[in-house]
Automatic annotation (TrEMBL):
It comes from Kineosporia babensis. The chain crosses the membrane at residues 20-39, 51-73. The lineage of its organism: Bacteria, Bacillati, Actinomycetota, Actinomycetes, Kineosporiales. This is DUF2637 domain-containing protein. Keywords: Membrane, Transmembrane, Transmembrane helix. Residues 232-260, 318-343 are annotated as: Disordered. It comes from the Bacteria.
Amino acid sequence: MMVGFAVVTGWVIRSEEPDYWSFYLTGLLGYLTSLAELVSRYRDAPVVASVSLPGIAYLLVNIGAALAALHIVQRFGWDLGAGPDHEQFAQIFLAGFGATAVFRSSLLNITAGDHTVSVGPYAVLHVILTAADRAVDRERALARMRHVRRAMHGISFQHNADTMFTYTVATLQNPPPDEVARVSSKISSLRDAQNADIPDTAKSHILGFSLMALVGSKVLTQAAHHVRELRSVNSDPPGEATGGPEHRTIVLPDESAPTDDPATVVNNELRQTIEVVLAQQEPMLLRDLHRLTRAPLPDFTTLVSALVENETLTIEGAPGGERVSRTFRPPSASDIHPEPRSV
């Protein structure tokens, strides 16, 4: 496509015939108009859609329609009242931008039963453009399915839909309100009772399709990667349709038990380090605590989860900004008034 465009451009530049320039500029305007249509239809990957065979066919049909419109405009002498001095420019803009309206118009509509049949240029052009449009859509659908499957792997709709939606929209400086509302409506519909039988993985992929149309494939991949990292730090419960491997369970060691087992020694040391760091009774970021302990993330995550379940630690805050602190236990009556020991 680009090679042909370069050849035609060079040939027109060397030519001194004014009509060649008219048809060249008209075709260029028709090309830009149809390209804008493809970009608006396939916002997640407009370049891929434009260079695909169906996309090229779509562009060529629109260019041909613009050139045919210029021929008609010249034959009828339409100049929009521009006068002889500007007649050529008026016809170029009229045909280049008006071909979309002219060739999508109908002379009359005939109703046959429940169907309306259009009579005019639109009837023929609509069939060609619809076929090319659907071909582009089908070709992009295969690529979208492959990409969403990779990007959303390990993302649970039940547990991560709100995080994915909020995080992804937050990456945009000027998110379009109508598209954001459309994605939010899609999430609500997937949570509806009538869609309860849809598997969680399928819902996650459907969410990925909606988000990819909003932010593109690269942003979706990075957002899903970050959400998976946040989820691992936040320690989702194992085996709840996360799509990833279950977290290992670490049982808190009994302090009275022998400490010959190396794993028990490591767990005791890690637990003591956490208690020493949090001895100041001030909450700190969970990621800072992990950095100070220098422990492997799986061991740190599972031990912190066990400490939270054991009500030794308390975690508060949104994913990515969680703060951890030692759980406050009010002193009991025995601590305030200890029983006298018998001598």
